[in-house]
Amino acid sequence: MGLIAKHYDLSKVILVVGGIPITGYGDDGGIEVEPLAPMHEVSVGADGLTVASKTNNTDGVATITLSEASLGYAALAGLMQAQDISPVPAQLPLPFLLTDPVNGDVITSAFAIFLNRPTITKGRTAGERVFTLHLPGAFRTASFGVANVV
Description:
Elements: E1 14-17, E2 20-21, E3 31-35, E4 40-44, E5 50-54, E6 60-67, H1 71-85, E7 96-99, E8 106-109, E9 113-114, E10 128-135
Antiparallel strand pairs: 1-2, 1-7, 3-6, 4-5, 6-10, 7-8, 9-10
C-alpha cells in the first residue's frame, strides 16, 4: 500500500477582516498567527516539585503579507486608517476570521487592533505590505487541524 498524499492550497484559506475578504498575498507571504503567551508557565519549587500554571492569555498576533497591487492591501489599508482616526480604536469591533477548510484551522477575534503601518517600498516589481494585528482572545476558541483527524 502506498503513502497517502496530503494537499495544501492557500487559495482555499479564508481570511475576513472587518467583514471584507482579504486576498492577494505576497510572493513570500501569507498569514501567520501566533499566540502572545505560552499556554502554561512552569516553575520548580525549592522542594523540587514542578508546578504548571495556566497563563490564561488567549491573545494572538496576526501577520498578513500582501502584494501592494492587491485589493486585499487596499482593504486592510482602509480599515487601518479608519481605526487610526477613531477616538477609541480598541473599543470598536473589527472582526477577524481565519479558516482553512482543508485542515480545519479556525481562528477568530471580535476586536482586532492594527499594531503597525506597513513599510512602503517602491521598486522594479510590486512590493509587499506587511500588516500586524493584535487579536484579543483569538486562541480561546481556536481549533487546529480538525479536518485531518478523519
